[in-house]
Amino acid sequence: MDPQDGLSASEARSEAKPSGVPQPAGRGEAAAVAVYRRRVAAPIDRVWENVLDWEHLPFLHHDSFCGIELAESGAWGWRARVLLPPRARPSEVEIEVRIDRAASEYHTRTLAGTGAGTDIVTTLAVPDPAHTDVRVEFFVPGLPERARQAAGAGYLRLYARLWDQDEAMMARRHAVLAGHAPGPARPGARAPLPLGPAARLRERLPRLVECGGDRFRVLEHAGRLLAHATVCPHQGGPLEAARVEDGAVVCPWHGYRFDLATGLGPAGQRCRMAVRARIELDARDEARLVVD
After folding, report:
1. Which residues of the chain fall short of a pLDDT of 70?
2. What are the residue ranges of helices labelled H in 129-144?
3. For residue range 59-88, what is the model confidence (pLDDT) as tens digits?
4. What is the C-alpha separation between 86 and 105, in angstroms, rounded?
5. pTM for this model (two decimals)
6. Class at the top of the CATH hierarchy for domain 3-177
7. Could you say which of 2.102.10.10, 2.40.30.90, 3.30.460.10, 2.60.40.10 is the CATH number of the domain covering 193-291?
């Protein structure tokens, strides 16, 4: 969004290209079908980090992407095979994201599969240190004029949803890095936290508690009282309400998994919980949170 648009920081502006309006040449048969604009409440460093972060697509954007398999990546961007809904019968496309920091823009190109030849051009600008202006133009090949406006409207709906989700992630991550929000639990044991009678505790679960300056969630899973830290050690993702699957808590940002009994991740995962949290019961069935 351009600052002179007169919109507040939380507003987004977009437009579908009406059919019958001549489009600029230079991309072969690809026609510009829409332009999406918004100002995001995140500094440009977080935005570039997000552009290079291919891992989050099928987790943060689980309604829009079913899976991803990386082919190659680097400072230039990344290329991957991506699965698109419906999940029962997903379709596969090959996508390349290539960045040009000097020009403050990046291209998201569909190399193969449905929509091959599509080029989505995103341009970034910095109105102030805390915000980034985003302008996205969608070039789609092979569309008859009568179909362009509908295609553009679809892209605008999709990108409004994707940027809503990305902005929330970027804002929280920046707050964690800046020390304005709690970060991952710090290593080291701390004094156990009494939680009262186990029967009464079960009635109030899940429950968030603080122990030694860090927050933990206490919950019941498969009949067992368990606990885990509430900030993902990978990139600071929120685990306060994260789903539990097969005995592991799953980060909603990147799908990183942490065993609730050990704090460890599966083989090949790059990080683990810095502390192990567990619920102990004494002879009187009194519960306490132990962190070590």
Report:
1. 1-28
2. none
3. 999 999 999 999 999 999 999 999 999 999
4. 30
5. 0.88
6. alpha beta
7. 2.102.10.10
